[in-house]
Design brief:
The chain has 143 residues and is mostly helical. The protein has one domain. It has five helices and no strands. The chain is elongated, with a radius of gyration of 20 Å.
Length: 143
């Protein structure tokens, strides 16, 4: 049941990703406004670039969280968890997604590591939202 719970929590990362995608697209659209003849203050351009960077960082963490969500859901339904764990570790190693073939961590430790990825994803979104709010509040004052 723990693996199912972790998979469900990790699946919430998709909701965070959609919100981040919206903020990133708005920053991109605003940053491209000079192509339509609008003039932007250099500080506004910098803030948009920072929003885009945070959006890309968020996307990276979102991809990792989504992968873990799928893997935890699959392994939560496993009838032979130790064998499937070994197969997973071997597959990750063969695809160069993991540095060593064997992983001595138990599933609670793996769960905590996966949830830390979700926290990183949430932190990127929080930074992105704070920066977006700061941008919205400062744009009237900087032109």
């Amino acid at each position: 049941m723990n693996l199912h719970l972790v998979a469900s929590l990790l699946a919430r990362g998709a909701q965070l990703e959609r919100l981040s995608d919206g903020v990133t697209l708005l920053a991109l659209a605003y940053g491209l406004a000079p192509l339509l003849g609008a003039q932007l203050h250099p500080l506004t351009t910098l803030l948009c670039a920072m929003l885009l960077m945070l959006g890309l960082m968020h996307k990276y963490w979102a991809i990792r969280v989504a992968l873990d969500a799928d893997l935890f859901a699959r392994l939560g339904a496993s009838s032979d968890l130790p064998a499937d764990t070994r197969h997973l570790d071997r597959a990750l190693f063969d695809l160069h997604l993991k540095p060593q073939r064997e992983d001595s961590r138990d599933w609670p430790a793996r769960s905590q590591a996966a949830l830390s990825l979700l926290r990183r994803q949430a932190m990127c979104l929080a930074l992105q939202l704070v920066l977006a709010l700061t941008t919205l509040l400062t744009v009237p004052f900087i032109g």
